[in-house]
Amino acid sequence: MGPWNVKAGQAGFRMGQTYNLLRFLQIVTLTVGLSLLSLANTARDCAAQAHAQASNQAAKRTVVIDAGHGGSDTGVKGSAGTLEKEVTLRLARLIENRLKDRYQVSLPRTDDYMLAHPDRTGYANHIKADLFISLHTAGSYSAATDGLRVYYYTEPAVKLPAQTQPGEATATPWRKVQKPHIPASSSLAQRILDRAAPLTAPHPGTVQAVPAAVLAGADMPAILIETGYLTNPKQEKNLNDNKYLFKLATAISQGIDDFFNNPDRIAVTDLRE
Ligand SMILES: [Zn+2]
Question: How many Å lie between the centroid of ligand 1 and the Cα of residue 85?
Answer without folding.
Answer: 8
